Amino acid sequence: MNCRVVVEAAVPVYDVETENEAIRIGISKTGEMLNPDLNYVEINMGTRTSPSGEELEPAFIAADEALVALELEMTVFNVEREEHASRIARKEIGQRLENIPLEVLRVEVIEDEDDTDEESESTSDSSPDDDALETADETAGDGEGSGSNDSDSDANEPSENDEETTATSSTGESSTDDEDDDVLPEFEELLE
């Protein structure tokens, strides 16, 4: 089972004057701590609400210092339970973000079966199409050779095909059959 884990981090930022500046610095600081080891962790602004339900900025500033709420998202692969995924995410992120409090907000199970079903459908869809194309190519090649009204070309083509067929049957090689299938009947005269 694969899980998408969202962890909230409270990142302290110093010497800032505005909330936007605090958010930019907080994201940059967090990115520096996570990279290059955890460059697959997505960093987003967190959401905060007041007790009355009012939306607040993700940064709180007091005395030129800010506390920025960030959401860190990562995918944890091959886990048995959601608890296991949340522990792995907290451990991996927490090792890089020292002295920054973390809290797991949510764990979403990513469906593996849909991915494998889509892959199997795409391979099964491509197989009949390939077979249909090959059958259409063979039919088109047969129809063009037998449908022409030119008696000279009809007389020459079967004899060439008969010679090639006997050559392949006597040698037992199937590579000449493959080469013959690649050449359209109209171009056989040019290859002689």
- Largest sheet entry: 5 strands, antiparallel
Number of DSSP-assigned strands: 7
End-to-end span in angstroms? 61 Å
pLDDT < 50 stretches: 122-176
CATH third-tier fold name of the largest domain: Alpha-Beta Plaits
CATH C-level label of the largest domain: Alpha Beta
| Range of strand content | 15-25%
Which H/E pattern describes the elements? EHEEEEEHEHHHH
**What is the annotated CATH architecture of the largest domain?**
2-Layer Sandwich
User: Helix tally?
Assistant: 6
What integer is the average pLDDT? 75
Gyration radius over CA? 34 Å
Shape: elongated
Helix content: 40-55%
Integer tally of domains? 2
User: What structural class do you assign from the helix and strand content?
Assistant: alpha+beta
Provide a quick synopsis of the model.
The protein has 192 residues and is an alpha+beta fold.
Description:
The protein is an alpha+beta fold and 192 residues long. Strand 5 and strand 6 form a beta hairpin. The chain folds into 2 domains: 2-112, Alpha-Beta Plaits; 135-191, no CATH class. The protein contains 6 helices and 7 strands, in the order E-H-E-E-E-E-E-H-E-H-H-H-H. The protein starts with a strand and ends with a helix. The strands form 2 sheets. Strands 1, 2, 5, 6 and 7 form a 5-stranded antiparallel β-sheet that branches. Strands 3-4 form a two-stranded antiparallel ribbon. Residues 111-141, 151-165, 175-192 have a biased composition (Acidic residues).
